[in-house]
C-alpha cells in the first residue's frame, strides 16, 4: 500500500478502485436499446476495468422505465462479467435529461431492484441524493457520488468542500469533474485531489475536462485519482482519450 492508496478501497466483480494504477472506465452513450447492445460489443472487446452506462442518453432517446430495465438486462448479458456503473446524468451537470425530481430516484430504484448495477453514480446536489444512496446501500451496491462543473473550476477549498460533503453523505467513491479555463485551474483540481486523498478513506475520481485538462485524465493517479474515463468510439465528456492510448500512458506514468 502506498500513502495514496485509499484506506477503504471499493471492489466490484474483482475490480478494485483505490489502489494501484487507476481503473479505466469506458462510457456507453446509446440512445436506443438496440444501439446500446451494439455499442457494448467493441467496448467489451477492449476489456476496460469498468463500463459506465449513461442511462440519461437512453431516457433522452424516449425509452420508458420498463424499456430501460430491459435494456439494462440485455446490457449486463452483453458485458461478459465486466462491472457496470449506472449513471443518470442530469442536464444541470452536463447530462441529457432535466430530471430535477423523483424520476431520478424511481429509475435508480428500478435498476437496483433488477440487480443491474454494480455501482451507481449519484449527483451530490440532486434533491433525492440521500434516498438514492440509501436505496443503493440497501441493495449492497456502492455509490459513486459526483459533481460536475461545466462552466469553470471552483477554488481549491470549494472542490475540497464538495468532495468532503460526499464522504459525509456516505458515498463510497467521491468524484468531481471541472472545466478548466487556464492551466492554473488544472493545478487547482490536482492539488485539491491530493489534499482530499490524504484526508479521506474513500477512493476519489477527479478530472479537469477538455483539452487543457487532458493531463489530469492521464496523470491524475499520481495525485490520488482512482479511475479515468476513456473512449471506445463515443465520448461522454470533453477531453476523454481513446482507451488504448490511455492505457499505454497509464503504464508509463505508473511504473511501480
Ligand atoms: O462523471 C463522469 C466523468 C465524465 O464527466 C468525464 O469528464 O469523464 C464522464 C461522465 O460520463 C462520467 O459520469
Automatic annotation (TrEMBL):
GO molecular function ontology, one term from the record: 3-dehydroquinate dehydratase activity
Pathway: Metabolic intermediate biosynthesis; chorismate biosynthesis; chorismate from D-erythrose 4-phosphate and phosphoenolpyruvate: step 3/7
Function field: Involved in the third step of the chorismate pathway, which leads to the biosynthesis of aromatic amino acids. Catalyzes the cis-dehydration of 3-dehydroquinate (DHQ) and introduces the first double bond of the aromatic ring to yield 3-dehydroshikimate.
Enzyme class: lyase
NCBIfam families tied to this protein: aroD
Annotated residues for binding of 3-dehydroquinate: 52-54, 89, 217, 236, 240
Subunit structure: Homodimer.
Family affiliation: Belongs to the type-I 3-dehydroquinase family.
Entry-linked Pfam families: DHquinase_I
Record field: catalytic activity: 3-dehydroquinate = 3-dehydroshikimate + H2O
Species whose genome carries this gene: Cellulomonas denverensis
Protein's name according to its UniProt entry: 3-dehydroquinate dehydratase
Gene name for this UniProt entry: aroD
